[in-house]
């Protein structure tokens, strides 16, 4: 080897390449210096070229889309799965152990099989290391792993908003209230009547109301990881007319006598070394436009003294830090690369 370190290109396949999450993964991977794009696979659109499905991904326009099968995907070093729920499990089971599988879907996120079956109504496929490196101790678990369960977009925003307060015992995790607005790309590309332009434009609507949204158990699992003993969350998602982005407004009772300046200090110090998390200067509140296309979370926090609650707001791009960016962040850790490789932190605004 003449003493020269040979750079190895990592071959990354994307299953679900025609969807929103798969498309965003490919956009990021095209700018990743250590990656070559491997297999592109999908469902009904197999056989067509990517240019007909994802016109913005010009460098891959002529690539033919394969059927999604373990045989097609096994030729890659890494496979990013961006498939509907309960689709990735059977395929992942057939992939060799040395192929790193990074699943953007929910199949392997929950540790509790009962929770899974209650909210997803399919058999539980298993549990993989959870792809939120910002959780204490999680970065180490993701380094070198060959299986990653990328979090849901709402759980990412809510967990990052409240993490410092739970870790430092400043908030009471047993009475958390979250209202989170999301753009419709969170629901995937397949047309749904309530997501058609005429229904969506100029209107905002709550859905999954009353503790029934499938992200509730995932949020609670994260709160327990952060030390909450008997957590509870009242979670209300709201669909709003912007293509992408989540703004999560999270409140929780104070568990310590701290003021706004003190919670600002705690949040800022907790995230001081996190490359993708910014606690904004006081009085500047997160906006989705400033994280569009960035693997970034913008966070602000204060105390509502009259209500005796902390209020924390997080903005992420559901397709970037909320899924595909997190997938690439985890790919970097899994493959021993610097965690920030190929990931933009600057958003597209306005
Ligand atoms: N959108 C988001 O903000 C987020 C998404 N996720 C998760 O990422 C995954 C993908 O979501 P998203 O991109 O939004 O969904 P889309 O509906 O936009 O894309 C789904 C993709 O899966 C393919 N597909 C559908 N059915 C099958 C099948 N039976 N076998 C093989 N491929 C199939 C589709 O191919 P074809 O075009 O050929 O039908 C398409 O490429 C989901 O698990 C979702 O929950 C996670 C966090 C956030
Ligand atoms: C606006 C919208 O519909 N959003 C999706 C959440 C998307 C997400 O995070 O995906 P997972 O399905 O992978 O958990 C929803 O509420 O179902």
Automatic annotation (TrEMBL):
Semialdehyde dehydrogenase NAD-binding domain boundaries: 11-143
Pfam families, per database record: Semialdhyde_dh, Semialdhyde_dhC_1
EC number of this enzyme: 1.2.1.38
Pathway in which this enzyme or protein is active: Amino-acid biosynthesis; L-arginine biosynthesis; N(2)-acetyl-L-ornithine from L-glutamate: step 3/4
Keyword Protein biosynthesis attributed: no
GO biological process: L-arginine biosynthetic process
Domain of life, source organism: Bacteria
Chief localisation class: cytoplasm
Subcellular location: Cytoplasm
Molecular function via GO: N-acetyl-gamma-glutamyl-phosphate reductase activity; NAD binding; NADP+ binding
Catalytic activity entry: N-acetyl-L-glutamate 5-semialdehyde + phosphate + NADP(+) = N-acetyl-L-glutamyl 5-phosphate + NADPH + H(+)
Keywords: Amino-acid biosynthesis, Arginine biosynthesis, Cytoplasm, NADP, Oxidoreductase
GO CC terms in record: cytoplasm
Active site positions: 153
SUPFAM superfamilies (UniProt xref): Glyceraldehyde-3-phosphate dehydrogenase-like, C-terminal domain, NAD(P)-binding Rossmann-fold domains
Record CDD domains: AGPR_1_actinobacAGPR_like (cd24148), AGPR_1_C (cd23934)
Homology family: Belongs to the NAGSA dehydrogenase family. Type 1 subfamily.
Function: Catalyzes the NADPH-dependent reduction of N-acetyl-5-glutamyl phosphate to yield N-acetyl-L-glutamate 5-semialdehyde.
The protein, known as: N-acetyl-gamma-glutamyl-phosphate reductase
Protein's gene: argC
